[in-house]
């Protein structure tokens, strides 16, 4: 024991030296790129430098960490100190959703976006109390490993594999989406190509050294992402409030100014309010026209379609026959004829989008108001407010429980030297995650104030370069059109996607391009770190739990690792292809993964630790019921699938776990009570996991 403790301390000190040198080297690299910018090197070249330098750095760590040892490949040799495991878990956790999407969601939704911070942070309390120490004491490689051993048999293991693959796949699609977004913006590549270029950076670490390579790369990635996140928000804080602590200045100084501007935008008696109302009136008219056309199409079909097109053609003829033809009006009318939908399906799609303009006709949403609700009558407003509250609480619940059930996060606690270190690791994970989560709301407020005070009211003739740069990446992320033709930018004329807020912050704040590259590198680090962990979870579940545990238990180490790496490559390519289809925004995909994980795993894991009576049939019914109910509700209500069924109790599809989790518990309880209790061997396993042993808590149990 003394020798092991001494070795661990020496290893810890060695790691501190390595990462101190690494941090200093990274700072010098950023300064060097800044000097290149001052020398006039084109921004596109600097973008490539940041992209490929960081990928090469991660590749170097992956190459140095390459291993053929099973324990090193699956659980990093179980010797990662708590501090560094906390950093690695923080990077694993700080996915593209946290780094890219969190502040963007808070920017768009204000108070409602706090559900993500509260849910994800609270979830780590559940991890610390209910699962992390016990799974580390169990001492195997994967979550399906625990399910197979605890519930006795391959069926619970296979269901666990299926659930792990499904929720991890949904999650990894969101990370690859973030990688594609960053790559396309900072290299000029098409999004679909950028996805596959970024994929190379994801694969290079996990492919070479498994969990060992991923762990040490994630520590490096955390350092990059937290530095990249903090610099722009501190700069904005100093710029607007002269206070370098954004977590204070945003609420004390910037938020009251944002609230005052929001009131001004909504007050028709003020010049800004009158200008905003002129734009909103146009959107209301468009929405009403779209609604009229949809009703006409539903009633008249092809006949109505022909009548509408003829009306447009008659308008062109009338404009041309006028005494003083208006060339611009004729051009616009001819364009309307040219763009007219070719068939009923195309018309329905176009006019549904036109009807959707009503969302942009609404007054400005108050950032600090809890559960703002639209409605024509007080009763309708109160009903909508109740729905908003219900979804807020449901999302917090799903994210908390999902945090305690995500396989790629729980696997991290298999890598510590002991149960005690696993507990400490949870503390450090929370600390490193807190640094970013405490800053995200401040960043959202400061960026909103910058947009309200600098972009709104400016001239269309002098739009900043960042607007056209991001519009070239994706029109849904950034577009501004002069709706009322007054040449001045109104807030209602701006479309900003939440996924660009963090990445565009340096440009919005007027910082040098080197800081934009740094933030892109941080976002890339966040997406790559999580994607590495997720792909490894999928590949390990398939290779270890299916191939080794079920198909070929006598497979040699070399073949097991070859199978794992082959599966890693296949899954990564499939995920990249799905990502190129843009199945949803980053935050929804991540939230969906949490609901799926919570529904499938949480009841079986918690009951597996704390209820000795829980048995095989209960686990099978519970995991199956939870997963199916959750997935079915998402299929019914998420627009991507095109079903558009009514919501159950008005719950949004991202919080589908609110139905899946109870279904999982009910299935597990019923299945357990109608079948015999587990045998003596499993009862002893539960005692081993739950209670300290005489030998201490260092567990070296292997494959």
Detailed description of the structure:
With 703 residues, the chain is mainly alpha-helical. It is built from 26 helices and 2 strands. Strands 1-2 form a two-stranded antiparallel ribbon. The longest helix is centred in the first third of the chain and has 51 residues, at 191-241. Residues 694-703 have low confidence and may be disordered.
Molecular shape: globular
The major β-sheet equals: 2 strands, antiparallel
In terms of structural class, how would the helical and strand content be classed?
mainly alpha
Please tell me how large the radius of gyration is.
27 Å
The sequence of SSEs as H and E is HHHHHHHHHHHHHHHHHHHEEHHHHHHH
What are the segments in which pLDDT stays under 50 over at least 5 consecutive residues? 694-703
Mean pLDDT: 80
According to DSSP, the number of beta strands is 2
Please render the helix and strand layout as text.
Elements (H helix, E strand, L loop, with lengths): L1 H37 L4 H22 L5 H6 L6 H12 L2 H14 L4 H25 L4 H9 L2 H34 L3 H51 L4 H21 L4 H30 L1 H20 L5 H12 L5 H12 L22 H26 L3 H4 L8 H19 L2 H16 L9 H9 L4 E3 L13 E3 L4 H8 L4 H39 L5 H24 L5 H25 L5 H22 L19 H17 L6 H11 L13
Antiparallel strand pairs: 1-2
Question: What is this entry, summarized?
Answer:
This protein has helices spanning 2-38, 43-64, 70-75, 82-93, 96-109, 114-138, 143-151, 154-187, 191-241, 246-266, 271-300, 302-321, 327-338, 344-355, 378-403, 407-410, 419-437, 440-455, 465-473, 501-508, 513-551, 557-580, 586-610, 616-637, 657-673, 680-690, and strands at 478-480, 494-496. It is mostly helical and 703 residues long.
């Amino acid at each position: 024991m003394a020798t092991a403790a001494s070795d661990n301390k020496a290893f810890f000190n060695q790691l501190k030296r390595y990462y101190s040198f690494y941090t200093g080297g990274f700072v010098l690299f950023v300064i060097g790129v800044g000097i290149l910018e001052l020398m006039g090197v084109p921004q596109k070249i600097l973008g490539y430098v940041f992209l490929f330098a960081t990928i090469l750095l991660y590749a170097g760590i992956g190459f140095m960490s390459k291993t053929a040892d099973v324990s090193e490949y699956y659980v990093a040799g179980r010797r990662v100190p708590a501090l560094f495991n906390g950093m690695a878990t923080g990077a694993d956790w700080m996915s593209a959703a946290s780094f890219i999407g969190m502040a963007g969601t808070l920017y768009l939704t204000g108070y409602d976006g706090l559900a993500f911070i509260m849910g994800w942070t609270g979830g780590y309390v559940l991890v610390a109390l209910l699962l992390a120490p016990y799974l580390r004491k169990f001492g195997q490689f994967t979550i399906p490993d625990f399910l197979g051993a605890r519930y006795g048999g391959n069926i619970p293991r296979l269901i666990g594999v299926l659930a792990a693959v499904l929720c991890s796949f949904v999650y990894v699609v969101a990370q690859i989406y973030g990688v594609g977004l960053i790559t396309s913006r900072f290299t000029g590549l098409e999004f679909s190509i950028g996805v596959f270029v970024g994929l190379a950076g994801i694969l290079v670490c996990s492919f070479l050294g498994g969990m060992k390579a991923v762990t040490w790369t994630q520590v490096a990635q955390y350092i990059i992402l937290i530095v990249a996140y903090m610099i722009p928000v501190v700069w904005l804080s100093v710029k607007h409030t002269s206070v370098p602590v954004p977590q204070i200045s945003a609420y004390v100084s910037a938020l009251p100014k944002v609230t005052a501007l929001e009131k001004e935008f909504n007050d028709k008696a003020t010049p800004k309010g009158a200008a905003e109302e002129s734009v909103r009136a146009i959107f209301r008219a468009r929405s009403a026209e779209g609604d009229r056309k949809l009703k006409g199409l539903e009633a008249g079909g092809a006949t109505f379609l022909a009548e509408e097109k003829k009306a447009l053609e008659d308008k062109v003829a009338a404009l041309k026959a006028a005494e003083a033809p208006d060339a611009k009006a004729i051009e616009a009318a001819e364009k309307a004829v040219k763009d007219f939908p070719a068939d009923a399906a195309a018309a329905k799609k176009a006019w549904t989008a036109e009807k959707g303009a009503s969302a942009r006709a609404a007054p400005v949403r108050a950032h600090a108001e809890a559960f703002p609700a639209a409605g024509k009558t007080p009763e309708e407003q109160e009903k909508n407010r109740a729905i908003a509250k219900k979804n807020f609480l449901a999302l917090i619940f799903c994210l908390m429980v999902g945090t305690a059930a995500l396989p790629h996060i729980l696997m991290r606690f298999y890598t510590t030297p002991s149960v005690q270190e696993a507990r400490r690791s949870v503390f450090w994970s929370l600390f490193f995650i807190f640094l970013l989560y405490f800053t995200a709301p401040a960043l959202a407020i400061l960026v909103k104030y910058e947009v309200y005070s600098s972009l709104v009211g400016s001239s269309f003739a002098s739009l900043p370069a960042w607007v056209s740069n991001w519009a070239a990446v994706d029109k849904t992320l950034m577009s501004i059109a002069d709706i009322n033709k007054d040449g001045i930018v109104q807030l209602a004329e701006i479309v900003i996607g939440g996924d660009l807020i963090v990445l565009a912050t340096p440009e919005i704040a007027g910082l040098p391009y080197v800081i934009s590259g740094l933030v892109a590198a941080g976002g890339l680090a966040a997406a790559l770190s999580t994607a590495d962990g997720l792909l490894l979870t999928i590949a390990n579940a398939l290779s270890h739990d299916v191939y080794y545990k079920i198909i070929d238990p006598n497979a040699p180490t070399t073949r097991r690792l070859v199978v794992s790496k082959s599966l890693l490559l296949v899954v990564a390519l499939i995920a990249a292809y799905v990502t190129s289809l843009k199945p949803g925004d980053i935050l929804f995909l991540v939230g969906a993964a949490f609901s799926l994980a919570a529904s499938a795993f949480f009841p079986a894991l918690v009951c597996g630790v704390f209820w000795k009576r829980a048995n095989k049939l209960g686990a099978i019914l519970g995991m199956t019921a939870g997963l199916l109910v959750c997935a079915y509700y998402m299929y019914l209500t998420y627009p991507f699938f095109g079903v558009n069924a009514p919501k159950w109790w008005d719950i949004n599809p991202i919080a589908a776990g609110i139905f899946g989790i109870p279904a999982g518990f009910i299935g597990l309880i019923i299945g357990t009570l109608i079948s015999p209790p587990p045998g003596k061997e499993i009862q002893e396993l539960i005692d081993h996991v739950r209670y300290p042993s005489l030998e201490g808590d260092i567990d070296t149990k292997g494959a």
